[in-house]
Amino acid sequence: MPRPDLSALGVKYRRIPVMAIGRDVYCDSRIIIRKLEDLFPEGALGASTAEDKAIEKFLEIWNIEAGIFTRASQLIPTSMPLLNDPKFTKDREEFSGRPWSKEHIAENRPEAVAAIRSGFRFLETTLLADGRKWVLKTEKPTLADIEAIWTFDWLNGLKGALPRELISDQKYPKVFAWIARFNDALKIAKAQAPKPATLKGDAAVERILNAPFADKDLGIDLADPLGLQQGAEVEVFPIDSGTQHHDQGRLIGLTEDEVVLSTQAKGTEVRLHFPRTGFRIRAVTGGGQSKL
After folding, report:
1. SUPFAM superfamilies of this UniProt entry (predicted)?
2. Please, what's the b/e burial string for 39-74 (b: 16 or more CB within 10 A of its CB; e: otherwise)?
3. Is the CATH code 1.20.1050 the one for domain 59-192?
C-alpha cells in the first residue's frame, strides 16, 4: 500500500492478485480461478467427477479457511530484512489484525511449525501415500494439485521458513517430490504459453475503463437469507484479513457463490466481483444492516 492503480479503478480491496476481464474486476484468488475455469473451458483444470470435485473443494477449504495458510504466514523468518522496516510491519499489522514484531513471530513459531508439519504428514500419509504423481491420479497436475500445493511450495522456497530438522525431503519424500514435479510442470507450461504483455498502471486503467463488460448478469437471488434487493447500496469486505478496506456500490449480482457491485471510476461503471465465502455483505443505506 498504497496502490494508486487499483484506486484509479475505484477498488478499495487491498489483497492481491486481482483480475480484470473487460470492466469486470475479480477480487480474491478463489473467484479468479473459478471465473477462469468458466470463461475458458478449453483450458480448464478442474475435476470432472463428483468425488474428485469434493477432494478439490476440500483442499481449497483446508488451505484457506481451515488455517493452513495463516499458520504458514507465521513461519516468515525473523531474519527477513523487511521486518526491520517499521512501515512494512505496520502495514502487515493493519492487514492481518495481529502483531508483526519479531518477538511475536518467534513466540508463535512453535505452534505454526506443529500445524505445518501436520499438513506435510497429512499429504504424505493420505493423498500421496500410494505413490501417485498427482492428487487425482491424473497424467498432469490439475486444480486439485494447485489448491493443495501453493502454501507448501511457498514455504519450501522461503529460505529459513521450514525447520529442516523436522520438515525435509528425508522425512516427507513424497511431498517434496510432488513439489519438485509441480515446479517442473509449471516451467514447461510457462515456456509453452504466450508471453504476456506488460502495461503501466495508467495504461491498464484506461484499457479496462474503455472495454465492454465480459461477464453475464447474475441477477439477485431473492431467496437469499440476506434479503437484499437489486440496486441496494452495500459494502463488501473480507473478514479474515484486510478487513478495514471496504468496497461500496450498488448490488447488481447475488448468488450462493458470488456478489457483484456496480461502482464508478472516472465516471465509468466498473463491476467488482467477490466470492461469498470469507466476505461480509452489509447494507449501508435503508433497511438496516444485513450481513453474512
Report:
1. GST C-terminal domain-like
2. eeeeeebbbeeeebeebbeebbebbbeeebbbbbbb
3. yes
